[in-house]
Specification:
Elements: E1 11-19, E2 24-31, E3 37-43, E4 50-52, E5 58-60, H1 63-74, H2 81-98, E6 102-104, H3 105-119, H4 121-131, H5 137-152
Parallel strand pairs: 4-6
Antiparallel strand pairs: 1-2, 2-3, 4-5
Helix pairs in contact: 1-4, 2-3, 3-4, 4-5
């Protein structure tokens, strides 16, 4: 692994640990040339998932888009970066376990909402408001009533 500062090829691993329930490995590295420390992640490479958008266009699944949407929803909540990594790993695990190489964007959104609902209600409502494109207060009220029903069970 090359150093991200000086591009030296000789780096050493100084710490490794599992993240996302063993779905990936986080490695802290040290450049032997400039002593810069940096982090890398190692994940199993899975087959590409093609996302079917609402307008029927298709694009390759982009993990960064999911993370960006979840980050916006989780902003100013108590959800840590470790919890967010685990959340994304759980969502992806569910998506890959479907077994299809093409998955609708609505399936991804629904899966993300299912996982968010059990983690943080505020993040869930924020994500739902963008995902479901609420245009008025009635949409929020409907989602809040679904949360209340879920909590009663």
């Amino acid at each position: 692994m090359r150093c991200s500062q000086c591009q030296e090829a000789d780096t050493k691993v100084i710490e490794s640990r599992d993240v996302a329930d063993g779905e990936s490995i986080r490695r802290r590295r040290l450049c032997t040339n400039c002593q810069f420390r940096f982090t890398t992640y190692e994940r199993v490479e899975r087959p590409q998932i093609v996302v079917i958008k609402n307008n029927s266009k298709r694009e390759i699944y982009n993990r960064d888009k999911l993370i960006a949407g979840l980050l916006r929803a989780c902003d100013k909540t108590s959800i840590s970066s470790v919890q967010l990594d685990k959340l994304v790993a759980n969502i992806e695990h569910d998506l890959y376990s479907i077994g299809d190489q093409e998955i609708s964007v609505s399936k991804i959104g629904d899966t993300a909402m299912d996982h968010l609902a059990s983690l943080d209600e505020v993040a869930y409502v924020r994500f739902a408001s963008v995902y479901k494109r609420f245009t008025n207060i009635a949409g929020f009220e409907k989602e809040l009533s679904l949360i209340r029903q879920r909590n009663k069970k």
